[in-house]
């Protein structure tokens, strides 16, 4: 006869209910909720704990002495340094500026809007006009330099640098800096060792100015005044730029930023024309807006020893030695006498000058003869080297400001007349 196994005896300790605990799940939940409310009642008022607990630091295994923690990210801003490109299509002012500059429809308003964003406003080169300004400055300086070299082949290098600085470079900001540009040309320090013309050609910028940090304005102005007192040539003294009065807008820093922004805008527009319309259109734009300015080259000359330089010039060109002759005079014994002196080389009259004394009239006559030699020009019809490209391509290129028709006309004219090499002079005189 089989016996019943009493399982409760073997597993009594596991299956038996523990004292103080409910036997059913629902009772267990009700009991646990009741115990929790009795042991830890809810607190509706806050108070500082009597015992302060120490902060807990988590070790992440990083050597913070070698790898410091990253700085906190700046808060998110709702505005950007420059407007988004699609906003240009909604601007009526940009459309008016596009029409005022007679730009080609090939130049979109987004590019014109980018030319107005200076690096001081948006430092990101992908959105400012720094790249377009660099391209435009290169194009402007190239066309201006070749125009001067062909139309005035005998200009001394100092005068050429001064002319380059006056034509495509600095201009009065109150007049046409927004179209022609403005370049902040640093004065050359008097005590600097790089003063030769060769160093200007090799090491300096397109305007012959020293590439160096700006010195103190007071010391530079003093050096310029000393140079003027000693009769040393200085482009700012030969063709001075209007100075700002103390009541001018802003401070010196804000004026400098404004002038640089105007210059970068003008150069960026030329770069935009070259990018979207081509080389011929950029050349036409530079010729219409930069090379059309009037520039008095005679005011850029300043001679230290004009009579000596004229004698050296006649000796180099195998002319007869220059001789000063009194042509006429009036009021020799009066308070304001006037003497007219002419400089002759044999039977050829080289120059003429007048002054209150014979010496002054003789110096002016020598300077007039030197200027007549250095300002020789083959005429307005002389071709520049860039005309060869138009002859090869037949003009064309399209562009802003009527560049397409003008480029085709120049190309047809080049085909009819052919290429004529530019006149190259032997060089300037260097007086010692």
Kindly describe this structure.
- By secondary structure, the protein is mainly alpha-helical.
- It has three domains: 85-298, Ribonuclease III domain (Ribonuclease iii, N-terminal Endonuclease Domain, Chain A), CATH 1.10.1520.10; 306-374, Double Stranded RNA Binding Domain; 387-415, no CATH class.
- Helix content is 43%, strand content 6%.
- Strands 1-2-3 form a three-stranded antiparallel sheet, with helices on one face.
- A hairpin with a 7-residue loop joins strand 1 (323-330) and strand 2.
- Helix 6 crosses helix 12, helix 13 packs across helix 17 and helix 14 (306-316) crosses helix 15.
- It is elongated.
- The termini are far apart.
- The relative contact order is 0.11.
- Mean pLDDT is 72; it is low at 31-37, 39-48, 172-191, 214-218, 227-247 and 402-412.
Total strand segments: 3
Find the structural class using helix and strand composition: mainly alpha
Q: Strand sequence of the main sheet, in spatial order? A: 1-2-3
Overall helicity: 40-55%
Radius of gyration: 41 Å
Low-confidence stretches: 31-37, 39-48, 172-191, 214-218, 227-247, 402-412
Specify the biggest β-sheet.
Answer: 3 strands, antiparallel
Domain count, please report it.
3
Number of helices: 17
* CATH classification class of the largest domain: Mainly Alpha
Layout of secondary structure:
Layout: H1 7-10, H2 12-15, H3 25-39, H4 92-100, H5 109-115, H6 130-151, H7 157-166, H8 177-180, H9 197-203, H10 217-230, H11 235-238, H12 252-277, H13 279-289, H14 306-316, E1 323-330, E2 338-345, E3 348-355, H15 358-374, H16 387-393, H17 403-417
Antiparallel strand pairs: 1-2, 2-3
Helix pairs in contact: 6-12, 6-13, 12-13, 13-17, 14-15, 16-17
